[in-house]
Amino acid sequence: MMKLFKYDWKRDSNTIYSVLAVLVVAQLLLHWVGTSRGWEPMIKIGLGLMVYVCAMVVMVITGSKAYIKNLGSYQRRLVPIHPIYHILSALLFSTLTMVAVFAIAVIHGLLLIPWSELTAFLELGNMQLTAWDVITAVASGIWGTFFIMLLVYFSITVGAVVNIRGKAGVWVGIIVFIIITNMISLISETIFEQAGSAANFGIVQIESGSSAVPDTVSVSSLGTGLGSFLFELVAAALLLWLMAWPIRKKLEI
Question: Cβ–Cβ contacts within 10 Å for residue 114, how many?
Fold first, then answer.
């Protein structure tokens, strides 16, 4: 699996490094312009978040294109390893590229954003976070990234398998992604949450009121968070098994 991952990384490393370099330069310019012109902290943070979102979208597109290319590669499927490793190497690639963006965001926050601005942002969302909450939120974010990319790749796989002609597979993949994400979210909320009280991302809980800004951002209780995580783990295992099927059967996709 690591050899496949190294091959994917080497093939797309120029794109990844270019995106990360542009991201760093853009954030530095944004910070310099915002500071020199006296922009409000929330404006600088908001524009900075938009830049990070754009970088993450590019990373998702890059990873998805690499997965589609690998999925249709007959030579790659002849490699004598378990089919699931082909998928896990692609997921590892996409997850690490997204983590790289998150790491730059953390370094950006620690080095360039004054503590007073960070405090104002936390107070705006009434975020009650401890050191353990931050660690747990980071772990939840990494798992959430992995799980979201798994859903994306599952939808791509289904679209490739049922593709009839033209771009029919693309639309099938989009429909499958919408259905599977809503289905998993609905089941998770029905089993592990009280209706209308909160929304979970992994084990991070966001309790919202009538306003657009969350009332509280905190880490869920162990029972709720662990149950949701175990459910997602089982769902991930099932999706991986289904995705490995066309590779195992050597289907032309």
Answer: 10
DSSP string, 129-143: --HHHHHHHHHHHHH
Long-range contacts of 156-160 (CB under 8 A, 24+ apart): 156/64, 156/67, 156/68, 156/71, 157/71, 157/242, 157/243, 157/246, 157/253, 160/68, 160/71, 160/72, 160/246, 160/253
Tokens 């909320």 — which residue? 189
For 50, the token pair is 């938009």
Rg of the chain in Å (alpha carbons) = 20
Q: Spell out the residues 6+ positions from residue 63 whose beta carbon is closer than 8 angstroms to its own.
A: 90, 93, 94, 97, 149
C-beta of residue 192 within 8 angstroms of C-beta of residue 198: no
Convert the pLDDT of each residue in 172-219 to its tens digit.
888 888 998 888 888 877 876 644 444 444 444 444 444 444 444 444
Q: Which amino acid is at 140?
A: S
Q: Is the Cα dihedral 24, 27, 30, 31 positive or negative?
A: negative
